[in-house]
Amino acid sequence: AGSKLREVFDKINNLLSGKPVQTEGQAVSVTQHPQGLEFVCYKLAEKFVKHGEGEVSFHHDSAFPIAVVLSGIWELHPRVGDIFLAHLHKKCPYSVPFYPARKEGTSMEEYQRMLGYEVRDSKVEEQDHFLKRMSGMIRLYAAIIQLRWPYGNKQGAHPHGLSYGWRWLAQMLNLEPLADVTAMLLLDFLEVCGNALMKQYGIQFWKTMFFIQKSYIPRIEAVTSSGQMGCLSRLKNFMQKCLQAEEVPLPKGILTPSFWRT
């Protein structure tokens, strides 16, 4: 509910502002320790990324309530946003976007960690699980760049708005595609913020969509084996529907004005 989300936001904002906050029956404040504020900013940013790779990866709709709170906090406390991006880029290099190259002397295990895989006791996580986590983090990022906290001061610009999404898309299309990963990331990103980018960039956006369909999808196909076609097929269907309708649908789960009255 919108009222519940306001409570969560106010509690986080109060904590970061140095006010005492009640938690588990006791009052805590960042002023209790010289590094209190820095610690809270760090843990909070880390927690938002964990929501992306956990909750959002399983429940796509949850990207929007989480993102709108982070967007508002970022506006008032820019340090949290900076640290959030650092955590996000480390956990999901594709959010830069960047495909790390393996350097000489780097072990395979270390390289897989650089690519975003979880490696425990020399065991690398399954590809499905890895893709799900990356998908959740990209969806959260795509939701953040288009949302403003509705009760904030609308005078300033969004601290990390749609222009960053436009740049992400352009940089992504300048990279050589990777099997599985590229198709999934493009689909997640466009499903979540394609509608907002379409409204903001108009004809330039549609030129980019045509480029993806005519030039970039064949390049993804060239590196994709027959067993990895799932994401690519979904991306092709999505592109075809959007270009035929000349419209990118609103994402499922977007917060409507009526949500804030709940």
From TrEMBL:
Lineage top rank: taxon: Eukaryota
A Gene Ontology term for the protein's cellular component: nuclear pore cytoplasmic filaments
Annotated signal peptide: none
Entry keyword annotation includes RNA-binding: no
Gene Ontology MF term list: inositol hexakisphosphate binding; phospholipid binding; translation initiation factor binding
Coiled-coil positions: none
Subcellular location: Cytoplasm; Nucleus, Nuclear pore complex
Keywords, alphabetical: Coiled coil, Cytoplasm, mRNA transport, Nuclear pore complex, Nucleus, Protein transport, Translocation, Transport
InterPro entries, alphabetized: GLE1, GLE1-like_sf
Keyword set includes Nucleus: yes
Gene Ontology process terms (BP): poly(A)+ mRNA export from nucleus; protein transport
Primary localisation category: cytoplasm
Protein family according to the UniProt entry: Belongs to the GLE1 family.
Function: Required for the export of mRNAs containing poly(A) tails from the nucleus into the cytoplasm. May be involved in the terminal step of the mRNA transport through the nuclear pore complex (NPC).
Protein known as: mRNA export factor GLE1
